[in-house]
From TrEMBL:
InterPro entries: FN3_dom, FN3_sf, Ig-like_fold. Residues 15-109, 110-202 form the Fibronectin type-III domain. Gene3D superfamilies: Immunoglobulins. The lineage of its organism: Eukaryota, Metazoa, Ecdysozoa, Arthropoda, Crustacea. This is Fibronectin type-III domain-containing protein. Pfam families: fn3. PROSITE patterns: FN3. SMART domains: FN3. Coiled coil: none annotated. It comes from the Eukaryota.
């Protein structure tokens, strides 16, 4: 009498989502993504990492995916003040399970330079307008309008919502050098290109 035996295995389910994920070591342009896998009998062989980002000071958005067997990854080449959302899914030989999601926010950086757009002169004042920095690198909190004169230097501060200022008590037949700077919570950024004007009555001679 012969007895035959057979061996086989039933298909194992895909792994559950990682227990948690979180960001550490966040800078203006980098962030470390970490996660903890669930404790299961089958060996976890890989992870799918999908992260997408939304730069909060412009319209840039994007998405990337990578695969890694470790339990952490360094995300690089991010922009300052960017909301980053990541989904981490674990894999066994049976495939990938559902992801666990977490998010982080990169730090703000100092802004680039504004650009002076308009200068108008009246008998005793100068009206200045400017455009915001192309590289805001965060939320613009305010502007500094700096006026350098041979008699006195003046600094005016405006809220980040405004892009104009009026300099009063302007003297005739004098030169005024004007620059504008922007600030985020990271500090004051680069100054605009300077514009130098010379007042003569209601006439204005402008020199870049």
């Amino acid at each position: 009498e012969y007895v035959t035996t057979s061996t086989g295995s039933t298909s194992s389910p895909v792994p559950p989502p990682p227990l948690s994920c979180w960001f550490t070591d966040i800078t203006q342009t980098t962030a470390s993504l970490n996660w903890q896998d669930d404790d299961i009998a089958c060996m976890i062989t890989n992870h799918s990492i999908i992260w997408w980002w939304d730069v909060l000071w412009n319209d840039e958005v994007g998405l990337e995916e990578t695969f890694i067997a470790l339990n952490h990854i360094n995300l690089t080449n991010l922009s300052p003040y960017t909301n980053v959302t990541a989904g981490v899914a674990a894999a066994t030989d049976s495939g990938y399970g559902a992801p666990t999601t977490c998010w982080g926010l990169t730090l703000q950086d100092i802004p680039g330079a504004p650009a002076i757009t308009t200068i108008k002169l009246t008998e005793h004042s100068i009206y200045v307008t400017w455009s915001p920095p192309e590289e805001a690198n965060g939320q613009i909190l305010g502007y500094s309008v700096n006026i350098i004169n041979e008699i006195r230097n003046i600094t005016l501060y405006t809220d980040g919502m405004y892009n104009n200022a009026v300099i009063f008590d302007v003297q005739q037949n004098q030169s005024y050098k004007i620059t504008v700077e922007a600030a985020t919570e990271a500090g004051w950024g680069l100054p605009s290109d300077a514009v130098t004007i010379y007042t003569a009555g209601n006439e204005m001679l402008r020199k870049s």
